[in-house]
């Protein structure tokens, strides 16, 4: 079976994790601090705050901004459900906006269509690694006095106008889930341009403690902490951070290989009439975290039909990006572009170790199924 994704993990990551275990300090500590600094430096951020997942990063971002009951947060439905859930966690109401049919991302027009006097923030998602138009969304949010949070879960290594995506963003949330290009098993990061916010986020992720456990230990003396506000247990471990440091060093090679494979997909898939696939927007580049395609109008079957047929032929694919507003946890609204994309798209296998022979098989089998 050709998998849809396979993390690129090896002996370097295993040895890094083993070094942490041997050190005796496995909780949040010096390696987390090193990973935060290295990650922020690599992606043009002033500060990095490591957390337990991208979901907790989004939760912390909205909590930090004071978003709560009575507020509305504009989010794309065309995203993993965690994006909408984060608004619920702080007591706010997620309001779904439609997306651009080519990029799958929010636009100023789709956001403006759902903004109300209660709107307090927008969570823009760089969907599947395709960057949204940052300048356009920032300009809109500035005019309407709305906070903009970047959901950069899938966007490690993507670029916007020649710089790393979300570089300089007020708040950006990142994921290190195994389906991402850089993985720590589970884990996430908040990056911010605001030093005061970074300091508060570090307290909030650790129950609101005024002094972290690592700093208290390193002081060499008695140092009692205070709990200045109600916080959370959203910490990352040093084991995860050690793996993350190794993964970060490998990232340029991962991105180069994925873009090479994606370019090859583009050339081969051009032979299938009516099929459309993800590509770079004119203002940036995608890391091809997910290589999604939209089925031709001429194909009368469903995505489920295609997924089942591929599975029977030894190819593991996935349905396209979900539509959160169609799930029982949320109320249905009319989002025609989102609904078309989620019902007619699927994600093809793409991973660093993928061979050309495996890629040939994926394209050949897909072409036969669609015919």
TrEMBL record:
Which GO biological-process labels does this protein carry? Answer: polysaccharide biosynthetic process
Does Cytoplasm count among this protein's keywords?
no
Keywords linked to the UniProt accession: Pyridoxal phosphate
Which residues are responsible for catalysis? Answer: 180 (proton acceptor)
Requisite cofactors? pyridoxal 5'-phosphate
N6-(pyridoxal phosphate)lysine PTM positions: 180
Q: Which GO terms describe its molecular function?
A: pyridoxal phosphate binding; transaminase activity
Q: Which CDD domains match?
A: AHBA_syn (cd00616)
Q: Name one Pfam family in it.
A: DegT_DnrJ_EryC1
> What Gene3D superfamilies does this protein's entry cite?
Aspartate Aminotransferase, domain 1, Type I PLP-dependent aspartate aminotransferase-like (Major domain)
Return the PANTHER family for the record: DTDP-4-AMINO-4,6-DIDEOXYGALACTOSE TRANSAMINASE (PTHR30244:SF34), TRANSAMINASE (PTHR30244)
Report the family membership: Belongs to the DegT/DnrJ/EryC1 family.
User: Protein name, please?
Assistant: Perosamine synthetase
Species annotation: Actinocrispum wychmicini
Organism ancestry: Bacteria, Bacillati, Actinomycetota, Actinomycetes, Pseudonocardiales
């Amino acid at each position: 079976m050709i998998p849809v994704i396979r993390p690129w993990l090896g002996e370097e990551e295993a040895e890094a994790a083993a070094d942490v275990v041997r050190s005796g300090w496995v909780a949040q500590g010096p390696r987390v601090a090193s990973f935060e600094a290295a990650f922020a430096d690599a992606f043009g951020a002033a500060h990095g705050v490591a957390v337990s997942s991208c979901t907790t990063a989004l939760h912390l971002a909205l909590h930090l901004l004071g978003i709560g009951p009575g507020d509305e947060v504009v989010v794309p439905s065309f995203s993993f459900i965690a994006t909408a859930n984060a608004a619920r966690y702080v007591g706010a109401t997620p309001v779904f906006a439609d997306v651009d049919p080519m990029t799958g991302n929010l636009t100023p027009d789709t956001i403006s269509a759902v903004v109300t006097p209660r709107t307090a923030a927008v969570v823009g998602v760089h969907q599947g690694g395709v960057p949204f138009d940052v300048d356009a969304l920032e300009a809109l949010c500035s005019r309407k006095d709305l906070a903009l949070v970047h959901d950069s879960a899938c966007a490690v290594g993507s670029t916007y106008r020649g710089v790393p995506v979300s570089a300089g963003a007020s708040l950006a949330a990142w994921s290190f889930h195994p389906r991402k290009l850089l993985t720590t098993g589970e884990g996430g990061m908040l990056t911010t341009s605001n030093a005061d916010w970074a300091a508060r986020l570090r307290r909030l992720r650790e129950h609101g403690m005024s002094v972290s456990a690592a700093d208290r230990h390193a002081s060499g003396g008695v140092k009692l902490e205070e709990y200045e506000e109600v916080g959370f247990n959203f910490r990352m471990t040093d084991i995860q951070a050690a793996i993350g440091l190794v993964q970060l060093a490998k990232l340029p090679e991962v991105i180069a290989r994925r873009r090479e494979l994606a370019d090859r997909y583009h050339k081969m898939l051009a032979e299938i009439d009516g099929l459309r696939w993800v590509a770079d927007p004119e203002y940036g580049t995608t890391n091809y975290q997910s290589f999604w395609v939209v089925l031709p109008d001429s194909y009368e079957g469903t995505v489920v039909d295609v997924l089942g047929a591929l599975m029977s032929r030894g190819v593991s694919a996935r349905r396209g990006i979900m539509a959160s507003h169609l799930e029982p946890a949320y109320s249905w609204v009319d989002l025609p572009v989102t609904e078309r994309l989620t019902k007619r798209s699927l994600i093809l296998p793409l991973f660093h170790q993928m061979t050309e022979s495996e890629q040939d098989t994926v394209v050949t089998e897909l072409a036969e199924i669609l015919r």
